[in-house]
Amino acid sequence: MSFGSRWVFISLFVGMSLTGHSLCNQVVLLDTTSVLGELGWKTYPINGWDAITEMDEHNRPIHTFQVCNVMEPLQNNWLRSNWISRQAAQKVYVELRFTLRDCNSIPWVSGTCKETFNLLYHETDEAHSVKFKAAQYTKIDTIAADESFTQMDLGDRILKLNTEVREVGPISKKGFYLAFQDIGACIALVSVRVYYKKCPFTLRNLASFPDTVPRMDSSSLVEVRGACIDHAEERDTPKLFCGADGDWLVPLGRCVCSVGYEEIDGSCVACRPGFYKAYAGNIKCSKCPPHSFSYGEGSFICRCEKGFFRAEKDPPTMACT
């Protein structure tokens, strides 16, 4: 006898909007909330997990996977994702959002009802269509709910949505599958998001630093050398260190604006006509000394007006006489 069906949960999801995350230090490999068509995930056995798609208040699909065979012993229901390319990741994060029914709130169940499920993965270099083999999958963790819901919550339309994040790695092959094993719980898997972290492209001290993926070892930093922006040059070698959480740390060195250019809002901008800058550095352009001029942009010296002169040994700051 199967206690659960789509109607155990689905009334809670109608009208609910699941907005996705967007963080500059995350590269999303999978987000089920952004998939418009069918997910095409596999279930083993075929009558275990149910794939349910409903529309939210913005007419966007909510893909859920549900199972609730709590009356029957020895449950072993598997749900497998499609193949997920790891891209540049050495370690990925799996974020699950789900609801789980409190076994004590279900009448007439004894030891057959569970309140956990298992999260697993399997690395491969390419997608394959061979027969599913549970033994190939490595367990990541047993997932439990911080809050489980009851029959009263169903009646009051209260959705107790749990969010759990697990790290997976090191990953060395080109991609992987995720799997979810039910052993007798009443679950609705509402969304799955897989991502890895990066230190995003940034500008610091007039130097640019590219997207950088952290090392697998969370205690080890990646040293990255920056490249001076246009019209800037190194004063000390610019460096940043990429941390495990995608944060740039320990800035060292700097670039300075070249002759004829001054720093404005993080860029090196050419001196205006009538101004000059004779030396590289983070100083402002100066107005031409008396009886001298610069007609073009980016001048490093001002030339004397007709009838006025400056000795060869005079500095550029000296007025023409």
From TrEMBL:
Cite the Eph LBD domain residue spans from the record.
26-204
Q: Which PROSITE patterns match?
A: EPH_LBD, RECEPTOR_TYR_KIN_V_1, RECEPTOR_TYR_KIN_V_2
GO MF, one term, reads: transmembrane-ephrin receptor activity
User: How does the entry describe its membrane topology?
Assistant: Single-pass membrane protein
The positions making up the signal sequence are 1-24
GO cellular component labels? dendrite; plasma membrane
Q: Which UniProt keywords apply?
A: ATP-binding, Glycoprotein, Kinase, Membrane, Nucleotide-binding, Receptor, Repeat, Signal, Transferase, Transmembrane, Transmembrane helix, Tyrosine-protein kinase
A biological process (GO) annotation for this entry? axon guidance
Reaction(s) catalyzed by this protein? L-tyrosyl-[protein] + ATP = O-phospho-L-tyrosyl-[protein] + ADP + H(+)
Q: What is its EC number?
A: 2.7.10.1
Q: Which Pfam families match?
A: Ephrin_CRD, Ephrin_lbd, Ephrin_rec_like
The record's subcellular locations are: Membrane
Q: What is this protein called?
A: receptor protein-tyrosine kinase
State the organism of origin.
Answer: Oryzias melastigma
